[in-house]
Design goal:
- It is a single chain.
- By secondary structure, the chain is an alpha/beta fold.
- It is built from ten helices and 13 strands.
- Strands 7, 8, 9, 10, 11, 12 and 13 form a seven-stranded parallel beta sheet that branches. Strands 1-4-5-6-3-2 form a six-stranded mixed beta sheet.
- A hairpin with a 5-residue loop joins strand 4 and strand 5.
- Helix 4 packs parallel to helix 6 and helix 4 runs parallel beside helix 10.
- The longest helix is centred in the C-terminal third of the chain and has 16 residues.
């Protein structure tokens, strides 16, 4: 774990009261004790260090106290987190969203298990918005599996992924929508139409005219681009009509990677990584 995500309403006057699933995670998984140090991400996005002030076994509650000194080096000896810390990743530019770019994923809905994996991986990569798209090849059961109360599972997956990866980005999954509505969400979002954006749709067909590098260069590259979108198909891919709709109405550039045909969950991660790497100058 790189950080612990604190939900809204848990922090008051420098103290964080955790019970329920959070208590079980801290005690049974992390085995925290009094005096342990934890990196916590507060609801407004700020990263802090906190100490375990009290473990109440009777009330099944853990109380954390936010520290005045949040430096990593001073907390290293007592920290229960291991490896590169969330504040290190953020300050060095490793964390997703560190360049001030908002990444969107338009994922044509696959089967539930695959979509959950895509959400987990996209969160680890620092994506801000995931839009489930009801496409021509989407099964009805896939749509029902992420609506209403069932969406809570996705929220847990996002929280776990952020805690493990140290992502400062509060990833959110929208309600599933049809393609036309998805395009509206992209075009009407804050910052849309500013010219500092670029969007791509992955196609398994090699006759695409789009080019990833040229598209990014045309949008100004790192330092100028503020929003990036990538659309990825479900198990059956994206139909030619849907690609044309994205291209004509959403100004998505169709691109094709000269690799083997990828599973949808692999394609999403591969596409995100390719776009982020190209924007960051190929490093």
């Amino acid at each position: 774990m790189r950080q612990f995500i604190v939900e809204k309403g848990k922090e008051k006057n420098g103290l964080i009261q955790l019970d329920g699933k959070d208590y079980r995670y801290l005690r049974q998984v992390l085995r925290v004790r009094n005096g342990d140090m934890i990196s916590v991400r507060l609801p407004h996005g700020e990263l802090k260090n906190a100490t375990v002030a009290m473990v109440d076994e009777a009330q099944r509650r853990v109380t954390l106290q936010i520290c005045a000194d949040t430096g990593f080096n001073s907390a290293e000896e007592k920290s229960i987190t291991r490896g590169v810390q969330a504040d290190e990743a953020e300050s060095s530019g490793m964390a997703g969203g560190s360049a001030g770019i908002e990444y969107w994923l338009f994922q044509f809905l696959p089967r539930p298990q695959k979509f959950e994996l895509i959400v987990r991986q996209a969160t680890e990569c620092g994506l801000a918005v995931i839009v489930p798209v009801i496409g021509e090849y989407t099964e009805k059961s896939s749509v029902q599996s992420i609506m209403g109360a069932k969406k809570e599972r996705l929220e847990r997956i996002i929280k776990e992924a952020r805690q493990q990866s140290g992502s400062p980005v509060a990833t959110r999954v929208c309600e599933p929508v049809k393609l036309e509505k998805a395009i509206e969400l992209w075009k009407n979002a804050e910052g849309a139409g500013s010219g500092a954006e670029v969007a791509f749709v992955l196609s398994e067909r090699g006759d695409c005219s789009g080019n990833l590098r040229k598209g990014i260069e045309g949008a100004g590259g790192l330092g100028k681009i503020k929003r990036v979108a990538i659309a990825v198909g479900s198990e059956g891919g994206i139909s030619p009509e849907e690609v044309r709709t994205l291209e004509e109405k959403g100004l998505f550039q169709p691109i094709h990677f000269a690799v083997n045909i990828l599973r949808c969950e692999t394609a999403a991660l591969y596409g995100i990584a390719a776009v982020q790497t190209e924007i960051n100058g190929g490093v």
